[in-house]
Amino acid sequence: MRTVNIHDAKTHLSRLVDQASRGESFVIAKAGKPMVKVIPLDPMVGEGGVNRFGFLRGELKIPDDFDRLGEKEIDGQFSGEE
Fold first, then answer.
1. Residues near 51 by Cβ (< 8 Å), separated by ≥ 6?
2. In the prediction, which pLDDT does 38 show?
3. CA quadruple 21, 13, 29, 26: dihedral, nearest 10
4. Residue 79: phi, psi to the nearest 5?
5. Mean pLDDT for the stretch of residues 45-74
6. Residue 69: is it exposed, middle or buried by C-beta count within 10 angstroms (0-12/13-18/19+)?
7. Starting from the edge strand earliest in sequence, which strands make up the sheet with 26-30, in order?
8. Which CATH architecture has domain 2-40+57-79?
9. What gap in Å lies between CA 26 and CA 37, rounded to an integer?
10. What is the DSSP letter of 74?
11. pLDDT tens-digit map of 4-47
12. Distances (CA, A) of 23 to 10, 50, 77
C-alpha cells in the first residue's frame, strides 16, 4: 500500500480521493509515521461497479418450502435413524 506524506496529500487531495474511490487505498504519514489509512467506502458501487446488496434480485427463485428442505433427513440424524 502506498504511503503519502501529509503535505503531498494536501497538495494532491482531489487526485488521491479519486484514486481511493477506485479502490486504490493509501496511508497518510506525518514525519514518516503512518497516521491514517484512506480506503473507499464501497469500491464495488459506482462507475461500472456492482451494488452488492440485492445484486441478484429477480435472478433467483427460492421455493416456498426452502425452510423445510431435508427435514426428514435432519430429523433422522438427530433421532439416530439415518
1. 44, 45
2. 93
3. 20
4. -90, -5
5. 79
6. exposed
7. 2-5, 26-30, 33-38
8. 3-Layer(aba) Sandwich (3.40)
9. 6
10. H
11. 999 999 999 999 999 988 889 999 999 999 999 999 876 455 55
12. 19, 13, 47
Q: At 60, is the pLDDT very low, low, confident or very high (cuts 50, 70, 90)?
A: confident
Name the phi and psi angles at 38, rounded to 5.
-105, 120
Q: Taking the model in full, what pTM does it have? A: 0.51
Give residue limits of the domains in the chain: 2-40+57-79
How many Å apart are CA 60 and CA 39, to the nearest integer?
32
pLDDT of 56 reads: 78
Q: How confident is the model at residue 50 (pLDDT cuts 50, 70, 90)?
A: low
DSSP 55-67: TTTTT----TTGG
CB-CB neighbours of 38 under 10 Å: 19
